[in-house]
Amino acid sequence: MQLPRPKPPRVTLKGRYARLEPLSTIHAAELYGASSGAGAAQRFAYLADPVPADAADMHRWVAANAGKDDPLFSAVIDEATGLVAGRQALMRINPEQGVIEIGHILWGPAISRSRVATEALYLAARHVFEDLGSRRFEWKCNNLNEPSKGAALRFGFSHEGLFRQHMWVKGANRDTAWFAMIDSEWPGLKRRFERWLGPDNFDAAGGQKARLQGL
After folding, report:
1. Angle at 205 between CA 188 and CA 20, to 5 degrees
2. How far is CA 79 from CA 15, 64, 68, in A?
3. Contact 127, 19 (CB under 8 A)
4. Contacts for 24 with CB less than 8 Å, ≥ 6 apart
5. Which among 28, 41, 149, 203 is placed 20 to 30 Å from 164, CA to CA?
């Protein structure tokens, strides 16, 4: 392997159920809709940014963050509806070491725990390993965030440890749980993702027949 690896460009990544588009202000209104409403406080509890007060507040947040190279934000589009259903970012991008983290994840209620969200993660991982040739793809979260830790394991990230008082977030210490997948694991993980995402794994109502972790 040759290092450094390239930095992630602003590209659109398209799947069967999800599409990742470079975040811009054209996504702000729909992203506010996906981020607000019932359960918003819980969705933002472990994110660095607060619940947006209104649509204008979300527009300001998007305008301030859409142009950044790190974190590099994507809007998550639900291909079935064409609507923005969430956001995620590639971050702590380290081309010299070939390491990238995924974070700032907010998958709204329309896609949370769905094949859209799973494919959004898969598209990012495939891009990191295959297009950018990275060695390591990381997932980190507040150790209190049990759903996030469960999602990391479901997606195939390995738990690597706990960094105590790693960060100060929203006025409190944060112990950070570390997870990662590496390039040698990706071919097997890719096969598992693609088997799970195949149309024949879902019934007419969109329910899964086989669990991702069971494949």
Report:
1. 50
2. 8, 26, 25
3. no
4. 62, 66, 75
5. 41
167-173 average pLDDT score: 94
The one-letter amino acid code at 29 reads A
pTM over 0.70: yes
Is 120 in contact with 18 (CB distance < 8 Å)? yes
Helix (H) or strand (E) holding 167: strand 158-169
Q: What is the DSSP string of 19-86?
A: EEEE--GGGHHHHHHHHSSTTHHHHHTTSSSPPPSSHHHHHHHHHHHTT-SSSEEEEEEETTTTEEEE
Question: What φ, ψ does residue 67 adopt, rounded to 5°?
Answer: -85, 0
Task: Tell me the pLDDT tens digit for each residue of 142-159.
Answer: 999 999 999 999 999 999
SS3 95: coil
d(Cα 72, Cα 103) in Å, to the nearest integer? 10
pLDDT tens per residue across span 37-94: 889 999 999 999 999 999 999 999 999 999 999 999 999 999 999 999 999 999 999 9
Domain boundaries, the chain: 13-205
CATH topology of domain 13-205: Aminopeptidase (3.40.630)
